[in-house]
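pinned: reference chain
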Amino acid sequence: MNHRPFEDWLLDDQPLTPEQNRELQSHLRICSSCSSIAESNIALHTTHLVSSAAGFTDRFKARLARRRGEQTWRQIIGTLVLVLGGLGLFYWIAGPMIQGALRSPAEWITTVVSYFLYILTSLKALSEASTILIKVIPTFISPVGMFFVALLVSGLSYGFIFSIWRVNRIPQGV
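pinned: its structure tokens
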């Protein structure tokens, strides 16, 4: 059975021709789905709107303004933490070069070269250490232990992602 035209007629609130009205009435006698839509539509049109309580809009506007202010402060603090953290990281990475640049050119060149050598040797040592750990760890930890380690890492990752989501989500409603 095709309910489409009847549902449209019931929900559009457009005047019907006499033939459409006859078709609709005969369909409503046989179709319980469309008759329940018609009853709901009648109930919706006969309800009376209730006015809001005194001061509701003022309280709503005040609460909305307060939440927007809180959100603005959170954004300002987050931006400040991000900028200060970025500047601290930049100074930590580029600090020796900046200090060397403020001295003589020979010290500057020596500082830059030694800093890059430090980074390269640190990365090489880290890669060698991780290679050794990857080779050695499976001999000390059983497969069940590895499962629990993987479970722990995935749980910590989930907790990290959830905390990021919790901090950054936009509150719904007021």
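why pinned: The chain has a mean pLDDT of 85. Residues 71 and 170 are 9 Å apart (CA to CA).
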